[in-house]
Amino acid sequence: MKPVKIGILGLGTVGCGSVNVLTRNAAEIARRAGRQIEISMAAVRNLERPRICGTEGVRLTTDPFEVANDPDIEIILELMGGTELAREVVVQAISQGKHVVTANKALIATHGNELFALAQENGVMVAFEAAVAGGIPIIKAIREGLAANQIQWLAGIINGTGNFILTEMRDKGRAFGDVLKEAQELGYAEADPTFDVEGIDAAHKLTILASIAFGIPLQFDKAMTEGITKITAEDVSYAEELGYRIKHLGVARKTDAGVELRVHPTLIPERQLIANVDGVMNAVLVMGDAVGPTLYYGAGAGDEPTASAVVADTVDVVRALTSDPENRVPHLAFQPDALEDLPILPIDQVETAYYLRMAVEDKSGVLAEITRILGEQEISIEAFVQKDVTEEWTQVPIVLLTHKTKEGRMNRAISAIEALDCVYGSVMRIRMETLD
Fold first, then answer.
1. Where residue 323 falls among pLDDT bands split at 50, 70, 90?
2. Distances from the Cα of 276 to the Cα of 123, 170, 221, 246, 247, angstroms
3. Above 90 in pLDDT, residue 394?
4. Which residues are identified as catalytic?
5. Is the pLDDT of residue 393 over 70?
6. Helix (H) and strand (E) counts for the chain?
7. Do 144 and 124 share a domain, yes or no?
8. Do 163 and 283 sit in the same domain of this protein?
9. Are 276 and 149 part of one and the same domain?
10. 67 closest CA partner among 36, 37, 100, 35
11. pLDDT at residue 240, as a whole number
12. CA–CA dist 274, 415 (Å, integer)
């Protein structure tokens, strides 16, 4: 049987990693796929740029549409990043009857509904395992391995940069800005780290996970995001004293009222396995009604970890080339006509527990005022810590842990607390999840 010819859009880190894996493991991959996979053409920005992969026998072009329109190519690997040009090229490839494998989480999160519908019309597949958590096969695990379950919730550390920063802050007591600078020097963070530290990258990934978990359309624009830039070394230390770790967590939960879709710093009990995922590693905890909790851990980025997922998707597509398009695994786990239009809950309707840190005047009656305000919003306190201060300071840092309450109630309580004359500055609020 003749080899399957593929075209690659982008020979950067992931593109070259994919070339290296396809070349090095060619015989093993052919045994799994049933046919050889041949790299026919690749689109690059600069033909002369040095690369970490060999391109012998591969036609190079600076025009990605030339790859998408080549009649001999059956599968396109979209590894160029970005959304607008990537969307245009992928649409063209699908319209030409080509299957697509992508590692582009932003493309899937923002344009996936359109691309999947177009792929169904043209009888082709769009595979995107590499778009979430690098080499961890989390898409396949939820979509296929847990197909017997009703997924109740999932929570993930799905951005390695943020996890590296919080780990360094905890282990070495360092400030956020110092660790961010090191992450940039190490190549973990971009020169503009906004997507990583503000939760946008994680929200792209969480949007995809929620869709395949709950059978809902992709709705990135409704995901709530909050970054880690306001987390201080003191917060990390206080959390440790109270038996918690701070992680930048993506949480999706199905409730009777709708679906929670949120990314934010989160206190997690240190006994939880996911609380001990450190450095640039990723992990996703999934709760199914039949299987219970399952944890998926591994490298969330990098050339060959991500290439592992890209090539695995390519093998899946090759296996399915001759199959009936109506009997393939659905893109979002559920049959397209069975997706539910469940509402995404606004954050003020989400219920969770809270860590609150504030600086108050060192005098009697302050705590009574704060607890009165919390009581008016029906918020109960689980734990209270007052930190020691030296004689020359008149401000006392206090930390409160609350029981679960709706975000709207907490917002009103914080506004009232900040308005007190005895409270200095803003109240630091971090959400808490037990993940039980």
1. confident
2. 43, 11, 30, 10, 10
3. no
4. 205
5. no
6. 14, 17
7. no
8. yes
9. yes
10. 100
11. 95
12. 32
pLDDT interval class at 160 (50, 70, 90): very high
Q: Is the pLDDT of residue 391 over 70?
A: no
**Residue 47 pLDDT greater than 90, yes or no:** yes
Q: Residue 233's domain is classified under what CATH number? A: 3.30.360.10
Is pTM, for the whole model, over 0.85?
A: yes
- Provide the pLDDT for residue 327: 80
Rounded to whole angstroms, the Cα distance separating 414 from 356 reads: 9
pLDDT in tens, 193-239: 999 999 999 999 999 999 999 999 999 999 999 999 999 999 999 99
384, 310: one domain: no
What is the CATH number for 19?
3.40.50.720
Confidence grade of residue 322 (pLDDT, cut at 50, 70, 90):
confident
How many distinct structural domains can be found in the chain? 3
Q: Six-digit token pair at 238?
A: 């206080």
Task: Give the strand order in the sheet containing 4-9.
Answer: 59-61, 37-43, 4-9, 75-78, 99-102, 126-127
Of 321, 338, 355, which residue constitutes the final position of a domain?
338
> Any idea what the CATH number is for the domain that residue 414 is in?
3.30.70.260
Domain that holds residue 68: 4-135+303-338
**Polymer length in residues for the chain:** 436
Written as one letter, the residue type at 108 is I
Q: Are 398 and 365 in contact (CB under 8 A)?
A: no
Residues 123 and 144 in one domain: no
pLDDT value at residue 234: 94
Closest CA to 224 of 251, 256, 188: 251
